[in-house]
Design brief:
Shape: elongated
Radius of gyration: 24 Å
Strand content: 15-25%
Number of strands: 19
Number of helices: 16
Length: 520
């Protein structure tokens, strides 16, 4: 999809759908701004008639499709509600752009124009970024294995974001560029998560990560079984030993671009500051049967999404490279397949993680924390980051606690937790802080080994996070449990059924707003 920023008269937009976002007024009716009066006249008064009749009130998420008089340039007009102006935000704009793309696709239209509203709380580039994200995300479909299109939908090929005047359009264009990168990177994460497990085992996930790295200029390194053994990463090896598809540890690295690095070095020399290094860690279980502690059959097909954390890290590293973030960002994806077989690890086994800690396995379906233990240790000891952030579809207990509405935040550093909470609010990828106390860590201390890999049903999300806490040392760290948000059965304006790609925009918002300074 091509997204452009324009400053022409929207009445002349020869598109399949012209979307006009409008606010709801205090009288619970939508109001047509004076600047849109010429557009209304050019369309035969269709817009003002709909508003006067009350057929459209501007409520958030409301939409109404109109057809102008014959001869008009736009084939259809879509009125989209933003709600009251005082509460309208970037998410309302994403949804508006998504509704426009969805309306066009459902009617086999290939072109869309969205008239950018004025929103006092957002600068033009931020407003344009939100519209671009919504358009790109709404255009996503996972139809790789359909032999024919039975949905009746078409791919929207172009979206024009129409601003008032050339100056506003120029100010908005950087937001378009960022929005397209973020939307496409999230769609990449969706593709990886949606891919069938037989198509995307750990080795293929590693290959896809290397392909992305080559395309955007990331450094990459993949640890195979021999290298995992050499580094004594016994936890991920134990999880993967029951599968014919052996595990991989995938490392991607973004450094500030060479032409910026000299500037950064000179600034760093003058100020005494160093470029912050952030490690992003993703759970990459390409399929989770539960192992010998096998899951119920109902819903097990969704366990191809158990690598959604790893997919988000790959998407985030892609975006970091394309947006040329002035940070050193390392992504580590712990990829394995958890299967039952004669070679599988068993309940009662004791495994030794890369840190040297021993772990008693009480449940082989608590495998995500095992692979993350080795990934966190690798990140901390080999990369010495300023902060660690991991994403994982870790526990059903987090879904029970927070539902599908937000992810769980756990960490040893309140400032880092708060940065991620604010990033979640800004991107509508909400994440909510949860307690993490020494009592939780004490609860997963083992009888047979140093640790046990599950603390039982009570506070399951908390004890799982406490398990990970043992592998981060003193490094500021946050764990994001995305078990409830990684995939959905309920489509939205820019979200189809299936993988959401959650975490990509949240992470990038946090990184782009990284101000340095102490986290302690």
């Amino acid at each position: 999809m091509q997204v452009t920023v324009e400053s022409y008269d929207p009445a002349r937009a020869a598109v399949d759908v012209l979307a006009l976002p409008l606010f709801q007024t205090e009288s619970a009716k939508a109001r047509l701004p004076a600047r849109h009066a010429p557009l209304d006249r050019a369309l035969g008064g269709r817009i003002s008639t709909a508003l006067t009749s009350g057929d459209f009130q501007g409520k958030r998420g409301e939409s109404l499709l109109l057809y102008p008089e014959p001869g008009a340039a736009p084939k259809r007009i879509l009125l989209v509600g933003l709600g009251p102006e005082a509460s309208a935000d970037a998410e309302a704009l994403r949804r508006a752009a998504g509704a426009a793309v969805g309306a066009a696709a459902a009617r086999r239209g290939g072109s869309v124009a969205v008239v950018a509203p004025w929103l006092r709380r957002l600068r033009p580039h931020a407003l344009c970024q939100a519209l671009s994200e919504g358009a790109i995300l709404a255009g996503y479909r996972y139809d790789t294995y359909h032999t024919r299109n039975e949905s009746g939908r078409a791919d929207v090929s172009s979206v024009a974001l129409v601003f008032d005047g050339a100056a506003a359009a120029r100010a908005a264009r950087p937001g378009r560029d960022a929005g397209v990168v973020l939307g496409e990177s999230q769609n990449l994460a969706r593709d990886l998560s949606n891919a069938p497990a037989n198509v995307l085992p750990p080795a293929v996930l590693a290959h896809e990560a290397e392909r992305v790295a080559k395309e955007v200029g990331l450094a990459s390194h993949v640890l195979d079984v021999a290298e995992l053994k050499r580094r004594k990463l016994g936890a991920i090896l134990a999880v993967g030993q029951g599968s014919q598809n052996p595990p991989r540890m995938i490392v991607l690295e973004h450094r500030p671009h060479a032409h910026r690095a000299g500037t950064q070095r000179s600034k760093r020399a003058a100020s005494g500051r160093r470029i912050p290094k952030i490690c992003l860690i993703g759970k990459g279980i390409t399929f989770d049967s539960g192992g010998i502690s096998i899951k119920p059959g109902a819903g097990m097909h969704e366990m191809k999404h158990d690598m959604s954390g790893g997919a988000a890290v790959i998407g985030a590293l892609r975006a970091a490279a394309l947006l040329r973030l002035p940070l050193h960002v390392v992504g580590i994806i712990a990829a394995a397949e958890n299967m039952p077989s004669g070679a599988a690890y068993r309940p009662g086994d004791v495994v030794t993680a890369g840190s040297g800690k021993t772990i008693e396995v009480l449940n082989t379906d608590a495998e995500g924390r095992l692979v993350l233990a080795d990934a966190l240790h690798l990140a901390r000891t080999e990369h010495a980051p300023d902060a660690l952030i991991d994403l994982a579809t870790l526990t059903g207990a987090c879904v029970v606690a927070l539902g599908k509405w937000c992810s769980g935040l756990f960490g040893n550093n309140e400032r880092l937790v708060e940065r991620l909470r604010l990033a979640g609010e800004a991107t509508a990828e909400r994440a909510w802080p949860m307690p993490l106390w020494e009592e939780h860590r004490e609860h997963i201390r083992g009888d047979v080994a140093d640790l046990k890999n599950t603390g039982g049903r009570d506070g399951g999300a908390l004890t799982a996070a406490a398990f990970l806490w043992n592998f981060v040392g003193e490094t500021p760290w946050v764990h994001i449990d995305i078990a409830g948000t990684a995939y959905t059965e309920k489509p939205g304006p820019y979200q189809p059924r299936g993988a959401t790609g959650v975490g990509v925009r949240l992470l990038l918002e946090c990184l782009r707003e990284w101000r340095g300074g102490p986290l302690a």
